[in-house]
Structures are given as C-alpha cells and as structure tokens.
Amino acid sequence: MNLLFLLIYFFIIITVTEIFVILFRLTGLKSEVSRFQVVSMMTSTGFTTGESELILGHPVRRKLGVFLILFGAFSLAVIISSVSQFLSKGLRMKEIVSVASALILVFGVLKLTWSQTLLSAFFHRKMNRNVELADLPIRDVFLTDKADALLNLHIYKESTLNSNSVGRVHHGHEQLEFVVLFIKRGEEKIRKNVYDTTLHEGDQLLLFGAEKVLSNTFADDIHLMKEKQKKLRLPAMDEIQE
Predict the structure, then answer these.
(1) What is the spatial distance between Cα 187 and Cα 211, in angstroms, rounded to a whole number?
(2) Which of the ends of the chain has fewer CB neighbours closer than 10 A, N or C?
(3) How far apart are CA 24 and CA 28, in angstroms?
C-alpha cells in the first residue's frame, strides 16, 4: 500500500511540475528554462543562480515560485515518511539484485563509445536549438565585466538633457565608452538617430558603457534623478546597475 501511495504521489508531483511549466511559459519564459526552474524550486537545489533572476524580476513568477517552494518542502516530508515506512518492512534480496543489475547495465551502455558519441551529438543539437540570448539574465548579456554598467536615465524638466540631445550636450560622445541603446518615450521606443533626437521631460535613456564614464558624463542628471526619486519615495532601481 505504501508503494502504491508513493507512486501516486510521484504522479501528482510530475503533474504539478508540468502545470507550473505551462504557467511559467505563459509568462514569457521558454519551456526548457521553465522546467529546470520548476524542478529547482521544488527541490530547493539552487543550481540556477543566474537564471533565477528571470523568476525574481517578475511579480507573477515570484508568486508561483513561492507556492512551488512550499509544495516542494511538503512533498519532501511526505516522500521521506513513505520511503521510511516502505523500507521498515525490509527489501528482499531479489529486489536489491534487480536494481543493482539495472544500474550496472546502464553504466555499461554509457561506457560504450557509440553510445557516448550518439548522446554527445544529441545534447549538442538540443543545446544549439534551445539556448537563446533572450533566455539569459541581463547580467550575463551586458554586464560581463565589472567595469560595465547599465543606466536607465530619467529626463526631468530641470535635466541638462531636457529640450536637448545627447550629441549636442556631450560633444565627442563617439570617443567615450558608452552607447545609447534606445530612448523610451511613453510606450514608444526610439532607436534611430538617438544621439541627435531632442529629449523631452518624461523620456528615459537606456545607456550602456563603462561605469565611471557614465557616472562622470551624466553626473548632474544622475544626481537630479536620485533627488527626484527620494522625494517620490521610490527605490533607486533605475540607477547604474553594476
């Protein structure tokens, strides 16, 4: 009876896993990343330090993750209890020999050259097909060096860039170690002629470059943004991200 209960509960865990893979996929996460994240949270392994930012940075995914962590902790207790009761009755030698023989068979097959070649080709094909730049955390894409930084600069009425452009205010910007990725104006993202586009109050500049260069070049506007955010009691999440 304990073994039957254990098998049914494993089926429940697998079903819950697949349900949450679908839910995470509906939030925009790839299926492959979703499945690995779900298993990681349910087992509390913590293997996915980098990809975990995809969960932590999304409000819906965080709530789903909380349930998975709690469900995983509860499931672990149930499984340990069931296995303990099952083992307390003792295992016959025939069952132990069967499990050991199966493991030896799998090990023997994996030692064969042809099987290793086949699996290696399969894994590389899956990796080339599934790993996409959009699935990686922003730190793994942009901030590969300690000196790199991203700056989401808000433009206010008092900003030096207000009613001006980056090119006119910062002459010789081509020689500086930063680039303007785009200008966000409401729901619109401007990607053309970003250095010559006149900026207005409410615009946001997404800049990438050396942290020191960004801090020095846009020092006044960064200081103004910090002061504005303090008055509004907003967390300074849009400052330079190291």
Answers:
(1) 27
(2) N
(3) 7
Q: Evaluate whether 165 touches 199 at the Cβ level (below 8 Å).
A: yes
Nearest CA to 82 among 19, 168, 3?
A: 3
Confidence of residue 181 (pLDDT cuts 50, 70, 90): confident
* Torsion-angle region of 203 (φ positive above 0: left; ψ -120 to 50: alpha; else: beta): beta
The answer to whether 162 and 156 have CB atoms below 8 angstroms apart is: yes
DSSP bridge pairs for 180: 207
For residue range 80-116, list pLDDT tens digits in order: 777 677 666 655 566 656 767 887 888 888 788 888 7
The yes-or-no verdict on residue 153 having pLDDT over 80 is yes
Structure confidence by residue, pLDDT tens digits, 55-83? 766 777 778 888 888 888 888 787 777 76
DSSP assigned state of 197: S
In whole angstroms, give the CA distance from residue 242 to residue 239: 9
Q: Which residues does 166 contact at the CB level (< 8 Å), separation at least 6?
A: 173, 180, 194, 195, 199, 205
Q: Are the C-beta atoms of residues 199 and 162 closer than 8 Å to each other?
A: yes
Asked whether the CA dihedral 173, 237, 135, 149 is positive or negative, the reply is positive
Q: What is the distance between the alpha carbons of residues 242 and 240, in angstroms, rounded to a whole number?
A: 6
For the stretch 185-196, pLDDT in tens is 888 888 888 888
